[in-house]
Every structure is written in structure tokens, then in C-alpha cells.
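[audit] Reproducing an earlier prediction to check determinism. Same input, same settings, fresh worker. If the C-alpha cells differ from the archived copy the diff job will pick it up downstream; this log only records the rerun itself.
[audit] input (248 residues):
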Amino acid sequence: MSSSKNPTTEIMIEARGLSKFYGDFAATRDVTFKVPRGQVCAFLGPNGAGKSTTMKMLTGFLAPSAGEAFLAGYNVAEDRLAASAHLGYLPENGPLYVEMTPESLLEYMGQVRGLTGSALTQRMAWVSDKCCLAEVWRKPISKLSRGFRQRVGMAHAMLHDPDVLILDEPTSGLDPNQVEGVRNLILELSKTKTILLSTHILQEVRAVCSRVVLINNGKVVFDGPTADLGNNEVEMESHFRRKTLAGV
């Protein structure tokens, strides 16, 4: 068994041979990559490629059939609490307590994370500002649009100031102005955070990511600098199609 932790590591996200099987079906097979401290890495692939499954294994929300996941040097299976303390996770269509307001939800989640008093108040104010939640701060989440719900999820992921952010389609449901705001926020966060970003939007990849891991049919088919996929969106789309349609 691998060492359970190495808190001084410069590798903040690591997948080692992550595989997930459902009977004879392999959702992922031997997915392996590392994301060093301070990098924004895009995690790309067509629908059904295994992106969300891999992210759930990395975050500990899904147990792998084989392989290991590490966050900030902590083995997710062996040191779940220590790993999660370093993690902010925005799942695709993440569940929210819809009877609560953004304010009450974030206050509750902050307390669960051990935040109290002025520290909690300051973090709530910070994420409210960064995610533009002021106008819906005290409205029931059940009454919010998909875009606002997505922003509440983003605020929750950032609330405890984690070292690592794993974001599954963070701009889903947002209008163009909101999308631009999220991209600017990711660029700001990248100065101090390590970010793994799943998206279908190649323009977003070019705007905020320095590296791409591309998965197809549950396997990594490309891992390299964003520039190696092409100098513009047309070239990137062509490369993406070749890698994903060829079945490599």
C-alpha cells in the first residue's frame, strides 16, 4: 500500500491507475495523471468518456475498483478527512438544500467545516462577493435559477479556502456575462490554488488552462500543454475530434 500522506508534496492532485467497473463495463480504465501545485488543468472528453466518474473517485465520492487517488499528498481512501480538508468540489448538477437560502446554507456548511465567528463571517462575505450572490442572499434556493444555483455551489466549494478545487462544468447554466465572471475568478484563484476543471467549452480551456488531460472511452488519450492542442479553437476542436473519434 502506498504512503497515506505527504503534506509537503508539490503534487496536489494525483490519479494512479484509477479504474471503475460496473460488471463487464469499464467506466474508466487505468486513468493516471498528476497536477502540480498552482496549475489549472482542463479535464476534457466527450459525454460518457469517464470525466465525472474520475472526478468522483479523486474526491472520494466514489470508490475505485482499482487504483488510488491523492489530494495534497493524502490518500483519499485512507485519509478521507485530511484530504477533504484541502478540497473544494463542485460536482455537475451538485445537490443543494433547496429549502435553505444561500446565506443559511453557507453558514451551515461553514460550521460543518469548523469555521465560526468572524472567520466564518468573513469567508461568507468573500464568497458572496466573488460569486455575485448579494441579490439572492436570503432567497430560498428552490426559487433560484440554474445559474444562481451553480454560483451557490461554487461559493460552497470555495468557502473553507481549500488548496485544491475540482470543478465539474462550473459555467453550466450561466449567461455570457456570468461565464466571463467565473473565468476571471478561476484566473484569480489560480494564483494560490490548484484547479482541475472539466468543461466542454474549448474557449474556456484556452482562456484559463495551461494544461489539458483528455479522456476517451475511460482512458487518457492526451496529456500535455494546452498549446499542443492548437493555436486557436478551430485547431483545438480538430485535435479533440481526432483523438476522440479515433478511439485511441
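[audit] rerun output stored. Observation attached for the diff report: The CA atoms of residues 101 and 140 lie 4 Å apart.
[audit] end
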